[in-house]
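Protocol step 4 of 6: structure prediction from sequence.
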Amino acid sequence: MPLKTQQDEQPQLNLTPMIDVVFLLIIFFMVATSFAEIERDIELELPEVAAAKALTAAPKQRVVSVRSAGQIRLDGEDVTLDQLTRSLAAARREYPELSVVIRGDASCAFQHVAASLAACKEANISDLGITVRVAEASRSPAR
């Protein structure tokens, strides 16, 4: 009866090539980042054109937030009603299909939301929306 005197070797996974690839990726991204910074630091005087239209698609939507005290924010930046109207009018000239969503704080006076709606109307924005949150059944009174 033959006896097995040799032990079978356990297969081993060689991680060296994978570690090499990871180091190469890290080096690539570090070098690419430094090139991007160099390009931003180059001072150029760009040529001017008489008229140009936007080459990119219109933003999905602009968001007007009305806080409880009446402060107005357009896409996260504080603005006045006049600035809101001017910004939306300029954006509509660039993107005629522009849509605006108004988010009013539940505790703010509706007058502030109405003023934002009027600013949108003055800027000729026709695609308007107002966001609300659906009340939970346990918290909302029956109507």
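Step 5 (inspection) to follow. Residues 4 and 10 are 16 Å apart (CA to CA).
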